[in-house]
Amino acid sequence: MIRSCIAELLSFILLMMSLIAAPLPAQTSKSTAPTLQERIVLMPAGSIVEVQFKGKGVPRVRGRLGALSADTFQVQVAAGSTTEVKTFRFDEVKNVNQVNKLGGMRTAGRVTLWSLAAFGAVALSLFVYCLSGGCTG
User: Fold this and answer.
1) Of 12, 49, 91, 103, which residue is 20 to 30 A from 38 by alpha carbon distance?
2) Could you tell me if 37 and 92 are in contact, meaning their C-beta atoms sit under 8 angstroms apart?
3) 91: exposed, middle or buried (C-beta count within 10 Å: 0-12, 13-18, 19+)?
4) Are residues 131 and 77 part of one domain?
5) Are residues 42 and 97 in the same domain?
6) What's the whole-model pTM score?
7) Do the domain assignments include residue 17?
8) What are residue 20's phi and psi, to 5 degrees?
9) For the domain that residue 41 is a member of, what is the CATH number?
10) What is the pLDDT along the chain (137 residues), one digit of tens a residue?
11) Is there a single domain that holds both residue 118 and residue 96?
12) For 90, what's the count of Cα atoms within 13 Å in the CB-facing half-sphere?
């Protein structure tokens, strides 16, 4: 009887693990990638970004995304206790990355957390089932 309970538990765990959505690989398409300007327009205003410049030796700038125009964008940078607004042209920027867009926890951490929660719920259910007399052997 205990073997059948363990077999049911393991099959349930296997079923739950197969239902958890795995992260999808990055989609590669034959069409052209969006330009830097299009990517920045899609970022929400106020999001934290890191700006990389085309020139060598130019340090990266990290701050909050501000106003956008046809050929420039603004980043609010913290300088001590004040906030400084810097304006950059799209043609002088190599890349802009949105920092921490997932809110802190990465996909692997979320999958692990949900897997442990599901396993704990199953173990607790089996424990209660056995305490109620369902696992007598």
Assistant:
1) 103
2) no
3) exposed
4) no
5) yes
6) 0.51
7) no
8) -70, 130
9) 2.30.30.100
10) 777 778 887 888 777 777 776 555 655 555 678 888 888 888 888 888 999 988 888 888 899 999 988 889 999 998 888 999 999 998 889 989 888 655 566 778 888 888 999 999 999 988 888 888 877 76
11) no
12) 13
- Strand pairing partners for 62? 50
Q: 97 has which bridge partners?
A: 50
The DSSP bridge partners found for residue 84 are 77
- State the residue range of the domain holding 116: 105-137
Q: Do residues 97 and 60 touch, judged by C-beta distance below 8 A?
A: no
97 and 39 in a common domain? yes
Q: Look at the chain and count its residues.
A: 137
Single-letter code of the amino acid located at 53: F
Shared domain for 45 and 74, answered yes or no, is yes
User: At residue 101, what is the residue type?
Assistant: K
Domain count for the chain, please give it. Answer: 2
What does DSSP say about strands 93-98 and 82-89: parallel, antiparallel, or unpaired?
A: unpaired
